[in-house]
Q: What sequence folds into this?
């Protein structure tokens, strides 16, 4: 019994030694071969996580800004927004610098002739006022060419669809610019819209500056009728809206004069 037990134990020890000698090189081989492959893989995963995490945070902040309620006119937040819009207008828009250098253009604020008492009763200077609406309107008048270039900021409160300015809001702004050109032509310094046609060519996005290029048709216009056209363009010069308008001086309706300017 002792003889067979020793043989059995000797055989088990040899089998164990052989098993350990067989598996050890394999483990070392797997570990040394796996390290070069797993390290770049984890590096790529960390990089991708950082990139997509940053994009996710940025997209979340953008979405928060878009769905948040715009500040009410007259609040501190609204005043700060207006100041920033004015700052960008003064130093950030090349077309403004170009127009200011051109002596043929005279820069004016809109509604200069209207008192603070009357402004709240007007659509564009009342309900549509503030950074959420028409955050800024500046007029550059060229008397030689009978042309107006207006720079406007269209806020998020003018949207008809998320990020898109409502077509009716655009029509209102266009109508006023066409009317400014026509009224400047009329000796009576007053007039009303008789016809307005618009063609929407490209989307107009909120929270952006746009220019309105409005020109009087001097050949067709008279002292009581004025024809004008307007183009709405983004800051890259892309045509977004085309419009034409006919304005008349009423014969039986007495209207106040708009004023020397706008």
A:
């Amino acid at each position: 019994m002792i003889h067979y037990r020793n043989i059995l134990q000797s055989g088990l020890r040899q089998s164990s030694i052989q098993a350990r000698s067989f598996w050890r090189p394999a483990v070392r081989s797997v570990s040394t071969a796996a390290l070069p492959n797993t390290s770049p893989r984890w590096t790529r995963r960390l990089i991708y996580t950082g990139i997509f995490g940053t994009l996710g945070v940025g997209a979340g902040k953008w979405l928060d800004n878009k769905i948040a309620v715009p500040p009410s006119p007259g609040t501190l937040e609204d005043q700060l927004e207006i100041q920033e819009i004015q700052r960008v207008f003064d130093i950030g828009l090349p077309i403004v610098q170009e127009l200011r250098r051109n002596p043929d253009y005279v820069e004016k604020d809109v509604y200069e002739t209207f008192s603070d008492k009357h402004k709240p009763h007007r659509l564009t200077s009342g309900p549509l006022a503030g950074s959420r609406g028409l955050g800024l309107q500046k007029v550059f008048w060229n008397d030689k060419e009978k042309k107006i270039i207006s720079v406007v900021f269209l806020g998020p409160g003018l949207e008809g669809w998320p990020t898109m300015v409502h077509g009716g809001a655009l029509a209102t702004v266009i109508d006023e610019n066409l009317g400014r050109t026509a009224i400047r032509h009329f000796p009576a310094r007053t007039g009303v819209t008789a016809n307005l046609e618009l063609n929407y060519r490209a989307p107009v996005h909120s929270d952006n500056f746009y220019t309105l290029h409005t020109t009087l048709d001097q050949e067709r216009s008279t002292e009581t009728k004025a024809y004008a056209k307007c183009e709405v363009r983004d800051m890259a010069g892309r045509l977004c809206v085309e419009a034409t308008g006919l304005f008349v001086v009423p014969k039986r309706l007495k209207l106040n004069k708009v004023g020397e300017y706008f």
Confidence is low (pLDDT under 50) at residues 1-35. Residues 134 and 154 are 5 Å apart (CA to CA). The longest helix spans residues 2-67.
